[in-house]
Amino acid sequence: AQSVTQLDSHVSVSEGTPVLLRCNYSSSYSPSLFWYVQHPNKGLQLLLKYTSAATLVKGINGFEAEFKKSETSFHLTKPSAHMSDAAEYFCVVTPVGYQKVTFGTGTKLQVIP
Amino acid sequence: DGGITQSPKYLFRKEGQNVTLSCEQNLNHDAMYWYRQDPGQGLRLIYYSQIVNDFQKGDIAEGYSVSREKKESFPLTVTSAQKNPTAFYLCASSIGRAGNEQFFGPGTRLTVL
After folding, report:
1. B50 touches chain A (CB under 8 A)
2. Nearest Cα residue to B94 out of B42, B36, B35
3. Residues in A touching B44 (Cβ below 8 Å)
4. Residues B76, B47 contacting (CB under 8 angstroms)
5. B16 touches chain A (CB under 8 A)
6. Residue A25: how many CA atoms within 13 Å on its side-chain side?
7. 3-state class (DSSP) for residue A60
8. More confident site: B113 or A6
9. Where are the beta strands (DSSP E) in chain B?
10. Which of B49, B59, B61, B55 is closest to B96 using CA atoms?
């Protein structure tokens, strides 16, 4: 069994301040973990992925995430928010070698000028 | 350019009508997926296909049907049996089996009048 929980449905930050979007997961098998971003009425774009290599993963647009097995977390961070970061973010888990993919319910990020 | 295309972008249908959503990819991916997105619920898997002429039900397959006659194409039919079809539909593809990231199309917004 697997599940993913995004702890905040909405996050609001000021432009230029750090971003933290939280994700906890559970998986019976070694997981692959992903963060995707979705702008309004668009498809999803991959930000970054963890697939059992380095625990600190760097992605596009200055985002990074750290895989913490002991805490079963995969939080997404960015040092300085930009207005263009305003979007919805999805944390995704899939067991390595299996086709089942589980999406979190999403976190909407608002960036205040 | 390689990618996934979905058409139409917006679709309106009367109750009781079947409607087919198109999804085409030129990424040479084996696996393709259909998701439904409703506000606050993340993405829910409708159907997926790992190979031509084969597909499996996802979590919410009732009222939907698919075909996979060509590697590049994975059309979704929303039938009149689907009780609440108004939603945003996303198609995705990936290389081979699980653990790999999915590439998403731009989506089709279906509205039942």
Report:
1. yes
2. B35
3. 103
4. yes
5. no
6. 29
7. helix
8. A6
9. 4-7, 10-13, 19-25, 31-37, 43-51, 54-57, 64-66, 76-78, 87-94, 103-104, 108-112
10. B49
Q: Closest CB to A34: pick one of B35, B97, B101.
A: B101
- Summarize pLDDT for B14-68 with one digit per residue, the tens: 988 999 999 999 999 999 999 999 987 789 999 999 999 999 999 999 999 999 9
Q: Which residue in this structure is represented by tokens 């668009």?
A: A42
Under 8 Å between Cβ of A109 and A38: no
Question: Across the interface, do B41 and A105 touch by the CB < 8 Å criterion?
Answer: yes
Query: Strand B19-25's sheet: what is its strand order?
Result: B4-7, B19-25, B76-78, B64-66
Q: If you count DSSP H runs as helices and E runs as strands, how many of each does chain A have, helices first?
A: 0, 12
Sequence-ordered alpha helix ranges (H) in A5-90: none
pLDDT at B32: 93
Measured between beta carbons, which residues in chain B are less than 8 angstroms from residue A101? 33, 45, 98, 102
Predicted local confidence at residue A97, as pLDDT: 65
Partner residue facing A98 (CB), from B33, B98, B101: B98
Of B41, B97, B104, the CB nearest to A44: B104
pLDDT tens, A24-73? 998 877 788 999 999 988 999 999 999 877 889 999 999 999 999 899 99
